[in-house]
Amino acid sequence: MFFPATANNFFTNLCFAGEKTGIDKRHFHLTEETLVAHPELYDHDAQSLDNRLAMTVDAVPKLAQCAAAKAIADWGRPASEITHLVFSTYSAWGAPSADLRLATLLGLRPTVSRTILSLHGCYGGGRALGLARELAENNRGARVLVACAEITLVCFGGPDGGNLVGHALFGDGAGAVIVGAGPFRDGEQSPIFEMVHATQTTVPKTEHALGMQVSGSGVDFHLAIQVPTLIGQNVERCLLHAFRGGDDDDNDDGGAHLPSPLSGNGKWNDLFWAVHPGGRPILDNIDKVLKLEPEKLAASRHVLREYGNMSGATIVFVLDELRRRRSLLPEWGAMLAFGPGVTIETMVLRCPR
Ligand SMILES: CC(C)(COP(=O)(O)OP(=O)(O)OC[C@H]1O[C@@H](n2cnc3c(N)ncnc32)[C@H](O)[C@@H]1OP(=O)(O)O)[C@@H](O)C(=O)NCCC(=O)NCCSC(=O)/C=C/c1ccc(O)cc1
User: Matching Gene3D superfamilies, A to Z (predicted)?
Assistant: First the structure.
């Protein structure tokens, strides 16, 4: 690659054998041919935003289409029965927006109710699922397609732009899920996970910690070194809040319909875990503060190792990995996703028997 020696040493140190990052492999839309044709993509002083967006405007919905078509096939009903679409991406901007392009590619009905979530970053997948749950519960018979797709081409750069930690972590990918709340139809796959309760918490005074700045030369990420610690310090409070059914009272007296893994010794180890693998130290800190047994975050570590951090799409990969292991899962689980804010999306999950 074209990184000079100092940057290269730092980068090699981070990425070597995936020991620090926990990542062995990532997938990218960007090819060497594209880089040769577009040297402005690694020249931080060049105006490249227009070219980046011209490339992602079609590529992002097409990537999402691949994931969505697979989710629809697994679901077992025709795409025309989808009533709502929630699309999360930070990497395609323009109007008509990527959700409309995706709806057209999939042949969704013209009355499909579309929402696009932009710039939520890595918690976008969690927010999209939470929103889909609310839509499904409030619209009888609704079937909501959730699609998350990210292509890092908007933020790719050379070492002079900084952001080497982001370059060591982020990858491209798309995931999709169908969300519904009965009545169930013939041929429809039975539910895999029930989203029982969802909460969103913004950690006060942490706006500086995670962010994205747009300029004529593309998008720069800012990931403060404190992020893994901040998440570790706040995650248990978010979980207690969610398992109390969103009750702000600190007494563990609410959420009659929720399980109470909050009493007893093993507590968090009685759950299965779908955690956004934002980075290896984030998972390590969560393991530590919740005193989790080593295999509890196995699905998250597996996805990080095989795909890297695909921002909002990553949580769908983790849920899919858990789906494969579902016969081994306990009944109750928790989902966590993090992003700018610092925002923590928390969801109580149930794996129906
Ligand atoms: C692999 C890392 C980079 C290093 O591993 P380590 O165990 O901390 O290793 P070291 O303690 O040996 O640190 C290695 C080097 O990396 C440096 N470093 C260590 N974190 C840093 C650092 N955030 N900066 C800049 N140098 C550092 C550290 O200072 C040190 O530098 P040096 O002493 O010169 O070798 C690890 O810290 C890591 O994965 N950090 C990133 C965690 C993180 O913030 N993840 C993002 C979570 S939120 C998210 O997923 C979404 C974000 C998002 C936001 C907006 C969107 O639109 C879309 C997405």
Answer: 3.40.47.10
